[in-house]
Amino acid sequence: MTEAGADAWAIPPLFSRLVDDTSLLSPRAGAPGVDAVVARHLEARDGRHGGLVGHLACPVSRLPALVTELARAAPARPVDLSLVVDTGLGAVPKALSTVFSRTSLLAPRTIETAAPPDVDAVWLERVSEFVPEDVVAVVEPRRPLGDDQELIGAWLEAVRRVAEHGCAPKLRCGGPRPSDVPSVEQVERFVRITAESGRGFTTSGLRQVVHSAEPDQHGVLNLLVAVARAIAGGDVVEALRSTDKAALVAELGGLSPEAVGGVRGRLARCGADPGPLPADELAGLGLPA
Question: Is residue 247 part of a domain?
């Protein structure tokens, strides 16, 4: 028996711990309660497709409620936590104290925060001071709305500075508003910057397995192929726009173990509400385990 159950799906290395649960980051109106999120996350983590499940993302403001519900659920092992700063960096030490006092419930893996467009080394160093040595600092430079090339260029330079400082950049790929979805060209430039830097990055808002144009949504398979091509110097834009699932799967299936390691060394995790992301579809793609 594996930790995910007796009939657990053998996870291809490309998908191992790939999908974070970000449902606690959704607006509270109409969103599931913390109790429902905890129950669903533990069921998914310990179920047949549990090897897909990465971190549970939780804003600092909802951490007390998460601790309460986990204590009631009494998980067999701690939940991997991405702590998302939503109340200012000054609240991080107290939140970490809470997490480290609940080691049977939570294992801190990342601390995530948004960054101003003019993020610099001084600001990034302040963030690093709050992050323990064995926890990854994830920083999301705010992407500008619209297509002002000067502002987009400044955003991409901020992404480069984040990576060069040793933090993991974050790319928001979707959300409740159409403006939350970056263009294919913006994603391509982000991917190339992170591929060149050698740093891992994370995403949020990925709910599709393959890119769809109506409505415009980026796909998990597209992003994995895009990263592989960026590392190899290939056509990233074509990979991001493709709607040919069979072709994307075939390309991923042909990656060497070293190439797979390179891809996951860049694309560390994809944040998504695990309900809309079809685990059964990923499980049936036939990639080598």
Answer: yes
DSSP-derived secondary structure letter, 144: P
Domain of 81, CATH number, reads 3.20.20.70
Domain range for 266 is 19-283
pLDDT digits (tens, 9 = 90+) for 216-262: 899 999 999 999 999 999 999 999 999 999 999 999 999 999 999 99
Q: Which residues of the chain have pLDDT under 50?
A: 1-6
Q: CB burial class (10 A; 0-12, 13-18, 19+) of residue 278?
A: middle
87, part of any domain: yes
Encoded amino acid at 153, one letter: G
Please state, as a whole number, how many other Cβ atoms lie within 10 Å of the Cβ of residue 145: 10
- DSSP result, 67-105: HHHHHHH--SSPEEEEEE--S-GGGHHHHHHHHHT-TTT
Is the Cβ–Cβ distance between 270 and 223 less than 8 Å? yes
